[in-house]
Amino acid sequence: MQEKQFIYAVIENKAESPSFAESRTGGIDAAPLETVCYRDLAAVVSSIDASRFDPDVSGEASSAPKDESLKADLLKYQQVNFFLLEQSRRSGMLPLRFGFTARDKEEVEGVLERVYIQLRTYLDRLKGKVELVVQASWDLHKILQEIARDNPELVSADPVQTGRMLFEAAELRRKKLVEALHDKLSPLAEDFSEGPRKAETMILNRSYLVERQKESLFDEAMDFLGAQYEGTLSFRYIGPLPAYSFVNIELNQGNFALVDKARNTLQLPQEASWEQIKASYRKLMLAHHPDRNPDSPLAAERCKDVVVAYEIVSAYCRSFQNFRVRGKQGEYSFVKEAVEDVFIADDKGAVLARAN
């Protein structure tokens, strides 16, 4: 059997990393969990059969068993990541998409090196946070009946026109309900992500990124909404989960491309001190803040872009071992050669470590 490495998540490469002996059953097919480390990052992996996720070309007879095997693998992937979430409360964890594999441990290390800045930025952003999923549904037939009863002017002799007007009114009501729900929940969250509405009765499927210390407040807000909309809406509340909905690693975007884009967003020269970086960030945040641009619908998005760029540049600067000294006395270079040299130095500290 030819083996590959299945990558579950990225965590901090620290002495107090989780003891995988506590995960009991290990990874997929009970394979031992291991870490592959690069700098201050550690990928959590286990060995799998290289053909594990190959497309099924053997016909319909084997499709059901393969589906069941895939479901079992997905469940194990989720169990491992939930274990890592609970064990890495302080340092955080970054879940990678299901089915993320590498040829061997050397290739895993290469992935960590190639997209280090993305991984480091996401890990910093998700530290101490969890994903909470809120789904809300209603009885659409009942809602349409209520609208028709309360708005008789929408009902006409033409059933097609009546149906169209009723559904338009229902959509307007849905948007107002979603806005009210979001207004209650969003102040307790750092970010949110829209999910697909999988049924016509579902009016909301939204994930919220919430700090652990605010999780209880979010729970209370959900209890309040459940009581407020009892008889009108039914809720499904899922979590805490690893922040699956807030991770989008682009493997084709290397460290330099990411850093260079962030530098341009922050309007920095090709060499800048840490003080210059912070000053540019503060200036741009003030310039684009929604409070100063009440008539601009893009102000909030611009601020978000500036924050993300600052996170990326910060991760790049902290990748220098002498960050503190450099931040006070020297400048950081953002030219391509300099950025790439940071991540291919001989003393990069990459090691392979088998977990207990």
Ranges where pLDDT stays below 50 over 5 or more residues in a row are 57-62, 323-328, 345-356
In whole angstroms, the N-to-C terminal distance is 24 Å
Order of helices and strands: EEEHEEHHEHHEEHEHEHHHEHE
Query: How many separate structural domains?
Result: 3
Radius of gyration: 25 Å
Helical content class: 40-55%
Main sheet overview: 6 strands, antiparallel
The 3D shape can be described as: globular
Question: What percent strand?
Answer: 15-25%
Provide tags for this entry.
disordered C terminus, single chain, alpha+beta, Helix Hairpins, 3 domains, six-stranded antiparallel sheet, 356 residues, globular, four-stranded antiparallel sheet, Alpha-Beta Plaits, 11 helices
Overview of this structure, please?
With 356 residues, the protein is of the alpha+beta class. The protein has three domains: 125 residues, no CATH class; 118 residues, Alpha-Beta Plaits; 98 residues, DnaJ domain (Helix Hairpins, Orthogonal Bundle), CATH 1.10.287.110. The strands form three sheets. Strands 1, 2, 3, 4, 5 and 12 form a six-stranded antiparallel beta sheet that branches. The longest helix has 27 residues. The chain is globular and about 75 Å long. The C terminus is likely disordered.
